[in-house]
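User: Just a sanity check before I run the rest of the batch. Below are the structure tokens for the first item. I only need the designed sequence back.
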């Protein structure tokens, strides 16, 4: 009984007209969640089943799609329950855990895109050394770093905030994000400094690496024959589209955290719904349509 009494609950106060549209919100989110799981799982299964897709590039694509499924699972089930509940609340410990998973998996997406950029760089710029460099061991190391490195980085501020004193128990959002810092009575400058270090390590540096890598690929492709240019365009364009799409999501989250209460609740709610609705559907659509081998197997599957 004492343990239950001492649990701190946070109210998710970012919903708009929930009593009026709760069933509409639920049906939209439930449909999107099923589509996310089915579309991502379909391409992952194709990559696993077909041996001609057992190449580093497709393995990284499968890892990226798996990451999208895990990230959407962090968000959607709790949202679906909240839409049907009278009170939209979450315990402080569960909220911290959701923040940890959300940002660890979000950062992993940047590192997975960086690994894919490196794979394309070696494939196009150093084709003779490709089998030697991109061995199974290299792929496993890159995948392990993509998931473990962000998790280790995010652990620090989560553990520090776990003992922080709360002066406000209403979060302006529909799920737990960095906006949780606005609820603390005192925000430690150490958290801000550490947050900047994490931001640079798991998002800015990978983005700069991806930009540099694709710039080198485009320069070499421009100087080469038409076949190399065609290969570069077909394999790099989907990755760039995914990077731009995801960078917009990440930038939006950073802007919301900085603006805090200055941002309209309705605009915040609408933008958040749009982003969590279309972002995780973009990856399977882009890779399913733009990657020739995957597109071919999808046509065989459905036609």
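Assistant: Here's the designed sequence for the first item:
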């Amino acid at each position: 009984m004492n343990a239950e009494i001492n649990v701190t609950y946070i109210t998710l106060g970012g919903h708009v007209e929930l009593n009026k549209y709760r069933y509409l919100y639920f049906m939209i989110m439930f449909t999107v969640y099923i589509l996310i799981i089915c579309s991502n799982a379909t391409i992952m299964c194709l990559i696993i089943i077909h041996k001609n897709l057992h190449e580093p590039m497709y393995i990284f694509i499968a890892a990226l799609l798996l990451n999208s499924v895990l990230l959407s699972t962090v968000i959607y089930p709790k949202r679906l329950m909240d839409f049907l509940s009278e009170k939209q609340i979450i315990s402080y410990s569960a909220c911290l855990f959701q923040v940890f998973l959300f940002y660890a998996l979000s950062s992993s997406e940047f590192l997975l895109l960086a690994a894919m950029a490196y794979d394309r760089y070696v494939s196009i710029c150093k084709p003779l050394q490709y089998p030697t460099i991109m061995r199974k061991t290299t792929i496993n190391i890159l995948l392990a770093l993509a998931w473990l490195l962000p998790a280790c980085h995010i652990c620090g501020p989560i553990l520090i905030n776990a003992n922080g004193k709360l002066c406000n128990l209403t979060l302006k959002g529909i799920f737990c994000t960095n906006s949780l810092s606005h609820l603390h009575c005192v925000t430690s400058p150490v958290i801000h400094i550490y947050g900047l270090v994490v931001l640079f390590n798991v998002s800015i540096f990978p983005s700069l690496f991806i930009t540099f890598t694709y710039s080198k690929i485009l320069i070499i492709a421009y100087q080469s024959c038409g076949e190399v240019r065609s290969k570069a365009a077909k394999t790099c364009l989907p990755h760039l589209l995914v990077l731009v799409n995801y960078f917009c999501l990440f930038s939006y989250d950073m802007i919301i955290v900085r603006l805090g209460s200055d941002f309209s609740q309705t605009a915040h709610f609408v933008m958040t719904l749009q982003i969590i609705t279309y972002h995780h559907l973009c990856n399977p659509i882009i890779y399913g349509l733009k990657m020739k081998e995957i597109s071919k197997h999808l046509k065989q599957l459905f036609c």
